[in-house]
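Re: the request from the purification team.
They wanted to know what the chain is likely to look like in 3D before they choose a buffer screen. I agreed to run a prediction and write the result into the notebook, where they can find it.
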Amino acid sequence: MKYILVSGGVISGIGKGVIASSVGTLLKSCGLRVTSIKIDPYLNIDAGTFSPYEHGEVFVLDDGGEVDLDLGNYERFLDVTLHRDNNITTGKIYQHVINKERKGDYLGKTVQVVPHITDAIQEWVERVAKIPVDGDNYEPEVCIIELGGTIGDIEGMPFVEAFRQFQFRVKRENFCCIHVSLVPQPSSTGEQKTKPTQASVRELRGLGLSPDLIVCRSQNPVAKTVKEKISLFCHVDPEQVICIHDCTSIYRVPMMLFEQNVLPFFNQRLNLNYPEKPRRTLAKWKELAERHDRMLKEVTIALVGKYTKLEDSYISVIKALKHSAIACNHRLNLKYIEAADLEKCTQETDPVRYHEAWQQLCSSNGVLVPGGFGVRGTEGKVAAAHWARVNKKPYLGVCLGLQTAVIEFSRHVLGWEGAHSTEFEPDTKHPVIIEMPEHNPGQMGGTMRLGKRRTIFKDKLSVLKRLYGNPEYVEERHRHRYEVNPKLVSQFEEKGMKFVGHDVEGERMEIMELNDHPYFVGVQYHPEYISRPMKPSPPYLGLILASIGKLHSYISRGNRLSPRSTFSETDSEDDEVSELASNLTDCVFGRDT
C-alpha cells in the first residue's frame, strides 16, 4: 500500500480536496486502484448535525455515513464508492479510544494522546485503506489522505504527530507528503509573495513532516523566479514545486498536474509500476474541460433554497446540474434565490428583495427546490412549486422539494386549506407530510433514513423510469425523517399527482410526477450524490433537457437527442448539441476520439 498525505497551509479552503481528487484521478488513469480518506480535526462524530453554513453540505454515502463534502469530490473524480470510515474525525478517534479504555483494553495504563490516540489514528488509516471501493473485492493500491484544516491548528496536532510516526511505520518508499499552500498576489504591488508558503513549510518540517511536493495555489500562473525561490527556501527541487492557478474549471486540474510531470515523480518516489498509459482517460477529462469552456448556449435554472449565501451548501446539487448541462452542451446559468424572499410581502419583508427574487424566478428556464430542514423559507418553496406548476415550467423537487410540491398541490388543487407538514405545523388539520416514527429516537445525529435504498417503479410510462433506462428499480441515497402521508396518496392520484415510485414495502412514496406538465418531478431521495461528470443523474438531466426543450426528443429516441451515433466537425450547431448529449456514452465519453 502506498500512502499520499495532502496537507494545507496559510488558509483553509485552499483546494486540498480538488488537489487530492486530481492526484487520485491521475493515478487511477494509469490503472492503479485508488482510495481516499478525509480527516476532519473537529470533535463532532460526523457532519450530520452541522449547519450548511459551517462546513457546506452534508454528503451521504451508500452505507448512510454523513460525511464531509470533500468525499463527494473523491467519489465524483475517482468514480468510487466510499464508506463512513473513510471520514475520520477527532470525535470518532476519541470515542474509539475511550470505549477501549472502558472495556479495559489498555490493562490499567494511563491513556494519553501519545501513544494511544496516535496509534488509533494509524491503525484506522491502515484498516480503511484496504477496504475495496471499486465495486469489486480487490484491495486498493494507493490511499490518498487529506488532512483538513491548516498546519499549526491545535486541533490537528495529534494527526500530524500520528503521520510523523506513520512515515516510519510504513517506510519512506511507501509514504509521500504533498503540501498545498497559498501564494498571494497583493493588488497594491502585483508581486507574488512566497513568505506565507515558506512559513507554512517551515512549521510543517518543524513538526516532523517534510513535503515531497509543494503545490502553490495562486490567482495567476506562478512566475519561474517565484518557483525557484520556493524551491530554495523550502528544501525541494524546482520540479517538486507544482503551480495550480485559478482556472475556468476544476476539470482542468488533473491535466495541469499531468503537464507538470507529477506521474513520473510518483513513479520514482513511490516505486510505482503503472500498468497502463493514462492517455485515454485524460483525453476524456481534457475534452470535458474544453467543452465546459466553449459552450455557447445557456440554460437558466433557479435554485430556490435556504442556504444560498454559501455555494458549498449545495455543492453536490450544483455539480449535478453542471454535469447535466455540459452533457447537453449548454452553459449553466444558476440563479440562487433565497426561499424566504419569495414569501408574501409584509411589513417585515424587504420589498426590493421580494420583487428581485420573483423576477429571477420568472426569468428562469427551470426551477430546482433542494432539500433542507426547519420552517424558515418553507412557504417560499411552496410558492415556487405553485408558480412552476401553474406556468408549466420544468420543476425538480429533491427531498423537501418533493414535500413542498405535495403541500402546494394539496392546498391549491385538493382545496385543503392549511395543509402542511407535521415538521413545521404539528397540529395541522391536513398532515400531508408526516414523521417516520422509527427515525425519531430522541437524538439528532445519524437517526434519519440514511444511505442507499431501493426504489421500485410502478408506472411503465413514468418519465423518470424512461430517463433511467426503463429499469424495474433504482438505488439512490436518502437523508430524511419525514415522508408523504401514505393514507392520502389515492386522493392525490385522483387529481393527477402520480406517485410512480415507492420503496420495497410499498409504503413510502419515493417519486412523484404530475400529469399534463412538461416536467414536474419530485424525488424523496438525493440523486445528486451519485451524479458523475461523465454520467449525470437522470432526474437532473431531465430537468435540463426539459428546460431547453429537448426532453421529448431525447426520450422518444431511446435516450438520445440525435438518431445518429457519430459526430463530425461538419455537423450543424443543433446536431452538435444533440450528438454530444447522446446518452453520454457516445462521442468523447464512451469512445476514443
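For the purification team: The longest strand covers residues 297-305.
Please add any questions underneath this entry.
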